Amino acid sequence: MSASAASLPWFLRVLVAFIRRELTAVGDYRSAFVIRLFGFGLAVCSLLFLSRFVGAAVNPHLAVYHGNYLGFVVIGFLGTEFQQVGVSVLAQRIRMAQVMGTLEAEVATPAPPWMVLGAPPVYEFAISSLRSAAYLLGAKLLLGLDLSRANWTSLVVGVPLIVAAFSGLGLLAAATTMLVRRLNPVAMVIGSLSFFLSGVMYPVTVLPVWLRAVGHLLPLTHALAVLRGALLIGAGPLELRESLLALVLFAGILAPIGAGMFAFALRRARVDGSLSHY
Amino acid sequence: MTPDPEIAVENLGKTFEAPAGLRDMLRGRLFGPPVTALRDVSFTVRPGEIVCVMGPNGAGKSTLVRILGGLLLPSSGRARVAGIDAGAGTSEFRRRVSFVVGDERSFHYRVTGRGNLHYFAALHGLPPAAARRRADALLARVGLGGAADRRYREYSRGMRQRLSIARGLLGDPKVLLLDEPTLGLDPKGARDLRAFLREEIIRGAGRTAIVCSNDPSEARAMADRVLFLEGGGLHAEASPDRIEAELGL
Q1: Residue B167's closest CA among A99, A116, A105?
Q2: Residue to substitute from A28, A104, A179, A264, interface B, most B β-carbons within 10 A
Q3: Which pLDDT score is estimated for A2?
Q4: For the segment B171-204, what is each residue's pLDDT rounded down to a tens digit?
């Protein structure tokens, strides 16, 4: 059995222990839960407002989505959240562990660093997926979101690719955070650019052609194309092949570069002693 | 025949390059002036021996144990601990060598002592049932059996130190590196913990240990030999009962 295959059960044990630990601490975050609930209510109101007023303005560009602006913008927000999780979680966890002082103790155990640092993103992606499903269900029940055309096969193919592409960005962001010891400049740049150029709130067709071209260099643009194509149009994997292929490329390029940079950042932390301080 | 040393340190040096301040950056430098934390340190430790590394604050004690624990890479020289190069950073090294971090921040405040140990047991690769057994046994052994289900933030300083020791023993290591294990404890608590560490945790299990401290009474109570660091260099070596005479402490 290869070393990586042998370490999978070990990683699952770490993941389960991590989740148990997180759930133990959840009781202490009641106020955060209330704030989140309030945020959810606010988001529902914003979506209603946007679908009534902004939706009408961009409606001519939404023909391909059957004029469904509500679905368009809900998926825009969900895709943004996925990107946020992918790009920020690992970096945030590392930063927090450095500040709290747990990182050195965790890295001092026999578990390889990827195992120590891999559990939080897996957990957060799982939570984010559940939350996204709940939001879609909520939008369907409360706001009448039409998902009758959804193609679930495209979703099953697309979501892992989206996660892989964002995880590659996340590794880059985490490495940068470790190196500069500041919270995530990569996430800030990617987040801001994506919000304007990836078609979160409005279709990219409203943008000038040259800005559209820039938008195609961002993974979120293709992630949203896949999610909207699958959920709103019912497009199959073949129809979505361009965006799926782009995501494969992003994952294939960003993941190894991110992993290499992250290994370098970890080694650098062992040189400058920043595992235990910040 | 003399057994191979459990710890062999040769010409170890460590220089830190602090990030540049604004003035240095304006001059086009990425780093500030280098700070030498260790210089040309060499010594060996026999299997089963307890060595106390003493010295004033900033002498390089914590840097030395962090290098020996594989958490920091040396700038020069080399260190072998439990038969493995400390810089290798392998899982097997971290199984054989345990760095007992006395840092209070190294546990999760909102989680119980038991919960914290379960998590670290998973990082040691123990299956859930074995992790529970091991954590329970260690909690009992360090005297925290009755407080295992209290949150870490409710622990006293002494309890936190004991939990650190329990964590350090999860993998049953051959070598223990203890950085100021009784820091901040009251005199009786410190005395009891030293006796417990020396007799049960180190001697009783045939382990080798390095204890960092700047407290002479700690050295006398625990060590077979004392190394004195000053300004990053190995300044002197003495037996614990000769600390006053030879090191002037």
Answers
A1: A105
A2: A104
A3: 47
A4: 889 999 998 888 877 888 889 889 989 998 899 8
CB proximity B178 to A under 8 Å: no
pLDDT, one tens digit per residue, over A178-216 is 887 666 677 788 888 998 899 888 888 888 999 999 999
Chosen from B96, B98, B112, B123 to mutate, greatest number of chain A CBs within 10 A: B123
Q: How far apart are CA A270 and CA B71, in angstroms?
A: 6
pTM over the 0.95 mark: no
Is 90 exceeded by the pLDDT of residue A62?
A: no
B125 and A10 in contact by Cβ < 8 A?
Answer: yes
Closest partner residue to B171 (CB to CB) among A13, A106, A110 is A110
> Measured between CB atoms, which of A109, A181, A273 is closest to B123?
A109
**B131:A17 CB<8 A:** yes
B44 bridge partner residues:
B8
Q: Give the residue extent of every domain in chain A.
A: 11-272
Map residue A195 onto helix, strand or coil.
Answer: helix
Determine whether the interchain pair B110/A272 forms a contact, defined as Cβ–Cβ distance below 8 Å. Answer: no
Task: Give me B140's structure tokens.
Answer: 């009992």
Is there a contact between B73 and B67 (Cβ–Cβ < 8 Å)?
yes
**Two structure tokens written together for B83:** 């038969």
Q: Are the C-beta atoms of residues B195 and B181 closer than 8 Å to each other?
A: no
Could you give all domains of chain B from N- to C-terminal order, each with its CATH number?
7-104+173-247 (3.40.50.300)
